[in-house]
Amino acid sequence: GVFAHLELLEAQAYKAAVKREEMEQQEEKLAGLRARVQELRLQRDDLRAKLDLQQKQEGVVSGPAQPSPRAVVEWKIKSVKSMLQVFYLTGISGKLTKRGVCFCISTAYEGTYLDSYHLDLLTKPEVQIYRHSVPIFIPLQQIAKKYLQTDIRRFLALLSDHLNAYVGRRYQADQLQEHFSDQIEGTLQRNSLCNLLVFNYNVSSTSKTFPFHARLLYRDLCCSLPTEVIVSCTLDAPAALAETAAAHMDLFRRMALHKAFLSFRSNAGESMD
Amino acid sequence: MDETVAEYIRRTVLKIPRDEIKAMLQKWGFLSEAQLETVNFHQIKEKISQDVVQLCEENSADIKQAAVLDIIYNHIYPNKRVWSVYQMNKRGEETEVFELTDFKTKFKRLLRSALKNVTISFREYEDNAIWIRIAWGTPYTKPNQYKTSYAVYHSQTPYVFISASVLKSNLPLLCQALLFASNYHDIREMELRSHSLNALKDIVFKRYSQVIFLCFLFSSLLVSPAVDLRIVEENRSEKERIERLTREAFGVGPQPKLEFAQYKLETMFKSDPKMDVLDEKEPFRCLVKFSSPHLLESLKSLAPAGMADAPLSPLLTCIPQKARNYFKIREKKGSLPGSFVSP
Q1: What is the per-residue pLDDT across A88-144, written as a single tens digit (0 to 9) for each?
Q2: Residue A189 is nearest to which of B93, B100, B157, comparing CB atoms?
Q3: Which residue windows are coiled coil (chain A) (predicted)?
C-alpha cells in the first residue's frame, strides 16, 4: 500500500538524517580538534623559542642524552674521592670482598691527615693476610701472630696504634728537618721507624755552632713521644747551657719535637744571647 | 793525588752518559760550582773526564771521595748490576732500635778485623736506604777499586740487597759484617735475582700502592677502554673469563721488573711404557729458563693475547708471592706421580 511505502520512505529519511547529524557532529569534533592541535603547536613553538633563547644566554649546548666518556670518568673519580674522604674520616674502615675483608687504616697526627694503609684479609679457611701495604718495618707479623685469629678488633686497633704513632714520629722529624734546618747541624739522623733521632742543634738560627746534642729514643712503638731523652752539651760549655739542656730534656719528653723548637723561637730573646 | 785515584775517577766519569755528568758531579759536591763552570760539558767525554781529573787534582781528591762518586753513579744506574736478595733472621722480638753510627762502626770493625785492605764507604738516602760500597784487597795487596761489592740495607728490615763482585769468596765475610752490624743472627740467600733493584724491593717489601687497592676495592669503577661500537665481540664471555683469571693471578697494577725465571727440573721422564725410551729410572735433568726485558708483564699478557691457556701454571704466577725466580722441581714422593717445588 501507499502508507507502507510512505512509512518506509519516512524511516529511510529518518536514518539518513541521523547519519547526517552524526557526520556533522564528527566533522565538528574534528574541526574542534584540529583547532586545538593548531593551538598546541603554536604553544610548543613558543616554548621552544623561549628555551633556545635561554640556552643561548647560558651558553649551554643541548647535548645528546648519553653522557660523554669524559663525563663518566670525571664522575667516577669524584665517587672514589668521596669514598676516600669517608675512609679518612672514619680511621679504620672495611669492605667485604669475595673472599674476605679489605681494611683501610688511615692515619693522622694532630689534625693533619697522613698516609692510608690497606690490608686484604682472607677469612677462609682461617683469617690470614693476603695482601697489604703496611711498611715492612712495622711488626705486622708479630701483631698478627698474637691477635689476628682470636680478636680481630684488637689486631686492627693495635696495628692502627703502631701506624699512627709511626707517621706521627715521622711527621715531627720531617717538620723539624723542613722548618728548622738552620738550627740543626747537617741532617737529622733517623731510622726507618723514626724511633731514634740523633742531632746537634742550637736554639737560635743565626749562630754557626750547635752546642746541644740530642738523642731521642722512642722505645714504645705505639707512642709518638720519646720514652728516653738525652740532651747534652760539650764538656767546656758554660753552666747556663747545661741548665738549658736539662730544661730541653724535659720539654722533648712532653712536647712534639717541632712544637718544642717553635717554643725556642718565642723564648729566644729571654734566655740565650 | 794518587795516580790510581786519578785513573779511577777518569774511568768513572767516562761511564756516565755525557748529559748527566754535570748533574752527577754537582750531587757529588766535591768540586765547587765555580770549578764546574770551567769545564765544557759539550766536548767529547774523553776531554771532559780529563778536565774533571785535573780539577780533582787541584782539590787533592783521595780514594774516599772517589768512592762516593762511584756510589752516586751506581745509585742512579743500579740496573747495570745483578742484585741478589738475602734474608736475615733474629732471635726474639724486642723493639729494634737502629742507630746509624753504631751500624757503620760495627760493620767497619768486623770487616777490618778480618781484612786490613778494604775500602768501605757509606751513603744514606731519604728512603732510609743505606748504600755500602766495599772494594776488596788481600792481606798483601791494596783494595781493587774495580772489583767492588755493593750492599743496600733499609734499617729495621730483614732484607739486604747485595751485588757481589767477581770475588765470591768475600761474600761470607760481608754477610758476617752485616749480621754483626744490624744485630741479626743468621742470613741466607734467597732464590731471587734481578738487574732491577727496585723490582726486588717491591717484591720483598710487598710494596702494593694505594692505587692498586683502590682498583681492587672499587673494581666497578675501573675505567674500561673506549670500545668501537662497530666491532662485535664474538667471544666476549671467554675474553672476560681470561681477563678475570689474569687479574686474579697477577693482580691489578704494574708488575715488578724481572728479567728471567729459571726452573731446574729433576723429574722423571714420563713416556709411554711401550715406547721403551729412557729405561733407566734416573731423573731427566733439564733447565728451563724464561728471559724477557720484563718477564712478569709478558707472562701476564700471554693469556689475553691468546698464546697460552688461562689459568697459567702456578709455577709462573707464584713468582712475586713466593719471592723467588729460581726453582728446583723434583719428583713428588708418594703414590701419585707429580712434581713439587722445593723450598
Answers
A1: 666 888 888 888 888 889 899 988 888 888 888 888 888 899 888 899 999 999 999
A2: B100
A3: 6-57
Is the interface score ipTM higher than 0.85?
no
Domain containing B147 — which CATH number? 3.60.90
d(CA B48, CA B18): 9
If you average pLDDT over residues A249-273, what whole number do you get? 78
Helix, strand, coil percent values for chain A (each to nearest 5): 55, 20, 30
Confidence of residue A45 (pLDDT cuts 50, 70, 90): confident
Read off the pLDDT of residues A71-97 as tens digits, 9 standing for 90 and up.
777 877 787 777 667 666 668 888 888
Asked if residue B101 and residue B188 are part of one domain, the reply reads yes
The pTM score is 0.79
Contact across the interface for A195 and B99, Cβ inside 8 Å = no
Beta carbons of A133 and B217 less than 8 Å apart: no
In a domain, B338, yes or no: no
Residue A69 contacts B where some CB pair is shorter than 8 Å: yes
Please state whether beta strands B159-163 and B83-89 pair in parallel, antiparallel, or not at all (unpaired): antiparallel
- CB–CB contact B213 A104 (8 Å): yes
User: Quick check: is A19 in a domain?
Assistant: no
Query: Does A114 share its domain with A193?
Result: no
Hunting for cell 770551567 — which residue is that? B38
